[in-house]
Amino acid sequence: MHSLRSLRRQMFDIRPGEHRRTWAMFFYLMFVLFAYYILKPVSRGMFLTKFDVDKLPQLYILIAAFGGALAYLYSRAAVKSSLQTAVFWTMFLSVTSLVAIWWAIHLPWMVYVLNIWVGLFSIILVSQGWLVASNLFDAREAKRLYPLLGMSMVLGAAFGGEFTNRTALLVGTRNLLLASAFMVVLSYLAFRVAISQAPTRVHEARAAEKKDTEFSFGEMMRDILRIRHLQVIVAILVVTYLVDTLVEYQFQAMARVGHTGDQLTAFFGQFYGLYLNLTEFIFQLFLTAAVVNRFGVGGTLQISPWSVALSSIATVVAPGVVSASAVRLTEASTRYTMNRTGMELLYMPLPLELRNRIKAFIDICVDRFSRGIGGVLLIFLTTGWLHLHVKGIAIVVMALCIPWIWLAHSARREYIATIRKRLESRRLDFQEVRINVTERATVQLLESTAYGEQARPAAYALTLLSQAPDYDIRPMLRKLAMSDSPEIRTAVFSAALERRDDAALENAVKIIRAVQSGESQDLPQSAVPYALALAPDRAKLARELLQDRNPALAIGAVEALRNQEDLAKQLLTREWMNGEEQSTEPARRRLAARAAGVLRDRTDVVWLASLLNEPKMRADAIDALAAYGPAICGALSDMLLDESMPIRVRRQIPRVLKAIPAQRSVDVLLSAIGQEDLSIRSAVLKALNRLRETSSGLNFENAFVQEQILKEARYYYELYAAMAPFKGEQARLLTRSIEYRLKGTLERLFRLLGLRYPPKEIYNAYRAVSDENAEDHTAALEFLDTTLERNLKRILIPLLDAPETRLERGRELFGLAPMTAEQAIRDLLHSHDPWLAPCAIATAAELKLRSLAPEIAEAAGRGESEVSEVAKSAGAMLAA
Amino acid sequence: MPELNIVEKVIALEGVELWHNLSPEQLARIGSIAEEVKMPPQRVIIEAGKPVDALYVIVEGSVELSRNGEAVATAKQNDVLGAWALFDEKDPLPVTAKTLEDTRLLKIVRDDFYDLLSDNSEITSAIFSTLVKRFRKLVEQ
C-alpha cells in the first residue's frame, strides 16, 4: 500500500490547490500537440508526395530562414504585450492561417508554405505553453508536475497521430487542416482555465520586466554570450536539432521508398501516432519522473545522446526502413520525454525575468537555425564528392553524439553553479582589502596619511608602510613614537617589534616608566612586549613588571614572555604562579591564567578548566587552555563527556577546541555531536563548523555525522508529530516551545550538513530556507535536492518542502503514528527534556487531562526541581 | 498562595517587551534567576531619583506610578517596572512606584542577569536584535 502510494506520489504528486491549474495545463498542452500531430504527417505527406526526398534539405533551410525572422518578430511583439495577449494572438492567427491554407492548398507553392508554417506552429505554441507553465509553477512544483505535463504532450501527440492515420483516407488529407484548427480553439479554452487561478502572474509576465524595455537581436545575443548557463542550453539545443534533422532525413528517405500520397500520410500518422507515442507514453509514464528524481538534470540529459548513438549502430550495420525507424523512434521518444523535461528544468534556476525574455527566442531561433544548419550539412553530406547515403549519415550522427554527451555533463555543473550564485547573491561578503605598496604615488599617499591628523588611518598607513620590503621606516617610527595618539603609538611599537628595530625603544621604555610611577595611565598595548623583546636589560625589566600592581603592565610582561620561553621559565616560577592563582583580586588571577597559557604546565589544566565556570575569567581561561595545543585534547574530551562536570564548564570546552585547529580537536568534537544536552550539542557543532571554515586539511568525514543527521531528522519529525494535535491558542506555550525546538533542530541539521558539504553554500541554503522569500526558499531546496546524497535528501527534503505532507512522511520514514493530545503530552512528559517536560505537564493541567494524573504525580517525585514543582502545581489543579 | 513554578514565571515574563524575541526556554533561564517578591500595600518598590538595580514584573496586584507626589499611571498584572534599569546603571527613574494592594512581583537583579547573559550568548543576541529593531523604528520615524 505504501509503495503504491509512493509510486503515485512520484508520478502524480499534485497537492491541494494545484489541481485546477495542473489539469488545465495538461489539456492545454495536450490539445496543442494534438493539433500539431495532425499537421505534421499532413504537411510531410503532401511534400514528399509532390517532391523528391532530395528537396528536403532545401525545405529545412527555408524553415530556418523564415523561422529565424519570425522568431525575432515574435520576440519583439512578446516584450510589448503580456503573455496572455501573446497566447491569444498566436492562437487566433493559427486558426485563421489554417483555414486560409486549407482554402488555397491547390496553389503550387502552398505545400512549402504549409511545411514552413507547421514547423513554426509547434515551436511557438509549445514554447508558449511551457512559458505559461513556468509562470504558474515554481521550481519545486515544476519538478513534481512537469513529468505529468510532459505526459499530456505525449498523449496529445498520440491522439493526433492516430486520428490522422484513421481519418486521412476517409476525409482526405486536406480536410484534416480544419480538424487541427478546432484543436487549437480547444487548447485556448484550456489555457483560460489554467490562468484563471493566477491571472495576474500570466497577465503581468512579459519577455522583459519593464513594460517599456526594448531589446534587440544583439541584446539577446549578448545575454547568451554573457551567461554561461545559457550558452550550455543553446549548445545542447544546437546539437539536439542537428541530430534530429539528420535522423529525420534518414527516416523520411526510407519511408518515401515504400509509400506515397494518402498512404504516406497514414504511415507517418501511424508511426508518430502509434509507435512513437506509445514509446513516449511508456517513457513518460514509467521512466521520466524516476530518471529525473534519481539522476537529476545532468543525468536525464545524458539519456538521449547515448541512446541515439547506440541505436545508430543498427543503421550502420543494416541500413533500411526498420533500422532508420528504430533510430528515429529512439531519438524522438527520448527527446520529447526525458530530454524535454531535463531542458525545461535546466531553465528553472535562471531569474524569471531572464527566463521569460530569452526562452521563446532560444526555443524558436535556435531550433530554426540548427535545422537550417542541418539542411546545409545534409546538402554537403549527400551531394558532391561525399555523396553519403543513410549509412554514412548514421556515422555522422554518432560523431555528433560525443559533444552532446559532454554538453549534458556540463549542464549539470552549470545548473548547480547558477543555483549557488543565486543563493550567494543574498549574502554580503566582506573581504580584506590589501594594498600593494610598490608604486611611488601609493607610498607618498601613505606617508601623508601616516603623518596626518586622523589616528586610525595614520596607524593603518604606518602598518602598510612597515610591511613594504624596501621602505626605510625608521625615521617614521622615531617621529611617530612621540605621537599623542595611543593608537598610533601602538602601531609604531608593533611595527618596530615585527621588524625587531630599536628605533622607538627609548620612547617605549619612557612610557612604561611613566605608567609605573603613576605619572600616566596611558599604556599602548604593544609597548611592553616591544620593550621586553629588545631592551638590553629585559630580564630585570620583566621581573619588575610582573611584580607591578598595575595589571596592564604585568599582563603586558606575561604576553611578552610568550615568545621567550627561557625567560618565561626563569620568571614565571611555581611560587609566583601559586601566589597569583590564589589571589583574591580577579585581575591577578587573570594574570595567572595568562601565565599558565605561556608556561603550558599540565598541572594548571584543571585549575584553568575551573575558571571556565566564572564569566569574568572565562576568556582568559579559554585562551590559556587553547595555548596548550593538541596535547590537552584528551583531557578536554574527558571533561566534555563527563556528565558530573558542571554544564557551564562543559559548554565552554568546544570554544577551547575551536581555538586548536588540529585533527585531534575535530575528532574530540565529532565524538560529542550526539550529546544529550542541546546547548552542548549546539556548541560542539558551532565549533566544528568554525574549524571546517577556517582550517583546511582537517578531516570531518565521520560515520557519526551521518548517524546524527538521521537522529536529528527523526527528532524533528517526532516534535512535529507531537505538536500536530494542538490547534489555535490551545497549549500555546507548549506549541511555541516546540516551534523554537524545531528551529533549533533545523539549525543543527544544517550545521551537520555543513560538515559534509561545502559549508558556505549550506549556510546560504539554511538562510534561504529560514527566509520568507518563496523564490529563495525554492532555490535552496533545489540546491539541496541536487547536492545531497539520495539517502539524506529522501529524509530532509520533505522536512523542508511541504508541511502538509510532513506527518505522512514521518510515518513512512520512521513509523511515527499520528498522536492525540494526550499521547503527545505523555511522550513529552517521559522525555526527560528539561523544558518540554514541565511545559507538557502544565499543558496537561490546562487541558484538564485527568488520565495523566498518575504520571504527573510520579513526576512530582522526580529529583529535577523544576519538573517536580510544575508537576505539583499541575497535580493540584487536576485534583481540584 | 504557592510560589510560582517555572512555567508560570515564563508566562509572566513573556509580557516583557524587551524579551519578545526570546524562546520560552530562554525565558525559563531568566525565570530561574527571577525571585518572587510579595509586598503589602503602600510599599515603595522604586524611588524616583534613586538608582535601580533590578527589573520587576507584576504578577498580581497593582502599582501606582507617581511623579512629584502626583499619580501618573497605574501598573497592573504583566506590566514591567524598570526594564531599562538592566542596561542603565547610572540614570535613575523619574517616577516612584508604590504598591496599591497586596502585590506579587518577579524581581530580576542586574548582576544575576549579566551573569546569565555571559553564559547564554543567544539570549544576548536576541535582546540585541530587539534593540536594533527598536532603534531602526526610531530612525525611520
Report on the architecture of this protein:
The complex is a heterodimer of chains A (880) and B (141). Chain A has 880 residues and is mainly alpha-helical. The radius of gyration of chain A is 38 Å and the shape is elongated. Residues 207-215 and 426-436 of chain A have low confidence and may be disordered. Chain B has four helices and eight strands, in the order ααββββββββαα. In chain B, strand 4 (63-67) and strand 5 (70-75) form a beta hairpin. In chain B, helix 1 packs across helix 2. Chain B is globular and about 40 Å long. Classes of the chains: A mainly alpha (880), B alpha+beta (141). The interface between A and B is medium-sized, with 20 and 17 residues.
Structure summarized in a few sentences:
With 880 residues, chain A is mostly helical.
Feature tags:
heterodimer; A: 880 residues; elongated; B: 141 residues; four-stranded antiparallel beta sheet; 4 helices; globular
Distance between the termini of chain B: 45 Å
What is the CA-atom radius of gyration of chain A, in angstroms?
38 Å
Largest interface: A-B, 20 and 17 residues
Figure out the total of helices of chain B: 4
What level of helicity do the residues of chain A show? over 70%
Strand content of chain A: under 5%
The average pLDDT value of chain B, as a whole number, equals: 87
Gross geometry of chain A: elongated
Q: How many beta strands in the DSSP annotation of chain A?
A: 0
Low-confidence stretches of chain A: 207-215, 426-436
